[in-house]
Amino acid sequence: MAIIIYLLAKNSIFLPRTYLNSSSNQGNSVSSLQKMAPLPYVGGGNLNDIMPPSESAPNANIKNRLVITNSYLSLQVSKVAVVQKQVIKKAEELGGYMVNSSIENPSDVASATVTVRIPSKQLENALQYYRSLSIKVISENLQGDDVTDQYVDFAAQLKTYEKTKTIFEQMLDKATNIQDILEVQREIINVQSSIDSIKGQMDYLKKNAEMAKITLYLSTDELALPYAPTDTWRPSVIFKQAVRSLVGTVRRIGSLAIWIGVYAIIWVPILLIVLYIRRKRRFS
Asked: In the chain, where do the E strands start and end?
């Protein structure tokens, strides 16, 4: 008992505040761990829920910063399906991979969405190649999220938890009572869980910074692509919209004619009966 209390007192500087027991009753040595608050669990959920973005200025002393890069391209292309395959093939050639890919309305005005990840060092090469596949680049957006400070904060937390784990391991070596051994082992498991979670978050940030994400919107018609027109009045766009509206109206009329023709087997006999009755009444 005396040895365990001595270790706690000696190494308390490394323990989180939640592990310092304010109770004056230390009669059961390690059993007093039952009164201690558990270590805060770091893991799971949204990264912003765990560590919300800070409004403070970034640390300028860190040179190799971690930046998660996301790029968005809207491209007008001649053949959506062909370009879709070329986009995925190029990503694989650069050491990346396809995240998701989908194509809509392939027989008419085809459009597709492709998301790929490529090494951040190859980002400019990939963007230059993808632009060359298009008839026209409708819009392009490049976003960067600096997560260096979050990564550094996680590293500091990890160091504290590892020191805490070392202290509990020392306590486990000195413990002789079975109940004390079980309690210390439980605390070691809790600390290790937090360590694993922090390492997972750090690995997540690092891998996302190493692999840039590119989302491409492909279509044969620029009006089907997400973009904001620079001109408030564009005659060519209005003409396309008018033609599309006319085609839609003709299609609706044609659909209505088909429905009327199919139901003729019902309404034609009824109409003939009504006309016959009216004619008979007129001459009677």
From this structure: 67-76, 97-104, 111-119, 136-146, 211-219
Alpha helices by DSSP H, 74-177: 80-93, 123-132, 148-174
Strands 97-104 and 111-119: antiparallel
SS3 call for 181: helix
Summarised one tens digit per residue, pLDDT across range 144-191 is 888 988 999 999 999 999 999 999 999 988 888 898 889 989 999 999
3-state helix, strand, coil in the chain (%, to 5): 60, 15, 25
Interhelix angle for 2-11 vs 148-174, to 10°?
Answer: 160
Residues 6+ apart with CB under 8 A from 129: 90
Is residue 53 helix, strand or coil? coil
Please check whether residue 126 is in contact with residue 89, taking contact to mean a CB–CB distance below 8 angstroms. Answer: no
58 with 149: CB under 8 angstroms?
Answer: yes
Tell me the helices (H) and strands (E) count for the chain, helix number first.
8, 5
